[in-house]
Amino acid sequence: MTHAARHWLLQIAATLGVAGTLFTAEAILARHDWRIDLTPEKRFTLSDHSRQVLAGLKHPVEITAFLRSDDARNSEIEDLLARMQRVSAQLRYTVVDVNRNPAVARRYGVDSYGSLVVDSNGRRAVTSDAREAPIVTAILQVTRPTRAVIYFLTGHGEHDLTNTDRETGYSAVRSALQQASYDAQPLNLLGENEVPADAGVVVIAGPRRDLLPAEVEKLAGYVAGGGGLLVLLDPDTPPMLCAFLRRFGVQTEASVIVDPDNRLFAGDSFTMTVPGLSDKHPASATLNALPLFSGTRAVSFAGSDPGIRGIEFLHTAPSSWRTPTRDLARAGTAFVADRDQPGPISVGVSLLVNAQADSVAEAKGVPPARVIIIGDSDFANNFFIDYLGNKDLLLNSIEWLSGGHAPLGERPTLRTPGVNQFFVSARQGRLALLIGTVLEPAAVLFVGTVIVLRRRWRG
Fold first, then answer.
1. The pairing of beta strand 292-294 with beta strand 271-273
2. Backbone angles phi, psi at 366, to 5 degrees
3. pTM for this entry
4. What are the φ and ψ backbone dihedral angles of 311, each rounded to 5 degrees?
5. Cα torsion for 238, 232, 270, 342, to the nearest 10°?
6. How many CB atoms lie within 10 A of CB 265?
7. Three-state SS for 215?
8. What top-level class would CATH report for the domain 149-401?
9. b/e map of 209-245 (b: 16 or more CB within 10 Å)?
10. Has domain 48-143 been given CATH number 3.40.30.10?
């Protein structure tokens, strides 16, 4: 064999080897679907909640996406649907070109590009927002047998579901519950009104005026019947509600918690992250981000009733302390040994109230009631709800209280890609200030001084 022939044979063998390697690698990647998402906001990674919803599907779900052939969003929408399909064998999707198949669009009642129709077990939901969160919401709507109703107590200055004010409104809570396939409604217990029979959870969100004794007894009857109750307190919560909680062994001393280290950098000492998340409770164990509270009251469990099981599942940092005053302006930022209680401080309590201990309830088969008390109501207002783990904490609490079996975990974000929160605590801010204004200039000055001295010594 000549030298030229040997050279060409080696070239062909090398080419075939490279082609075979690439083909094998492509086959392995196609089979195992290995992906690396390097985007800061993890745009191409499904959230924990979405993956749990899809993995838990019991019935086939069909998604029909109505797209336009020249729409720039098509590739992202199809990639999202493909990622969802790979999680669950129960999910299938079909892409329909609206321009080429207008009759199909009319049959489904679709009149806009980018709409998705989700079908399962004869139920249908339509969304015109082809992002992860709305699609998962539509899947929940067609797969959940019923839509649980969450009632919010009114009449005492509580946060309002229809109020769009940033600091006092709860309109974002209503939107979040609707996205999670819940129905949020107001509840007035004045007069002859009772807690409706379809109540999945009753929420008391930061009342400013005291409840009447008749209202308290109606709530007590609801809990005795195995209901779910979420109570969001504040430093100035009226005494009647606190007295009601003492029936279950919950202590809510008049106080406010201060934490100069875990507060928002350059913010007040009463707005702080809550790092003590119990891994023994579903509402806190699955949080991937710390909750951010503002104006927080201490809540602890000291019950001795064997029919009530309680757990403190939220705690502030050891650097915090509880000061016995409801006047935030006078609380100060310095710890006073003979007045304040050092942290960590419990700010969240969960209860299982075992009604089976009562013979009448046992005869009726009443399940244990579920109660969660959190020492802050502002964490869910329109301003704070999208911060860190606040929305997930609220929705996880609602889900656990309603007795549902939907998965708990970090939910997909609806923020605009590229626009992210950047939370810096006071401790982190001081460290950044120290590094940027002291250590870095000092290091440059030191290196420069050494260079100058060495040059002079050599010269």
1. antiparallel
2. -75, 130
3. 0.72
4. -140, 135
5. 90
6. 14
7. helix
8. alpha beta
9. ebbeeebbebbeebbebbbbbbbbbbbebbebbbebb
10. yes
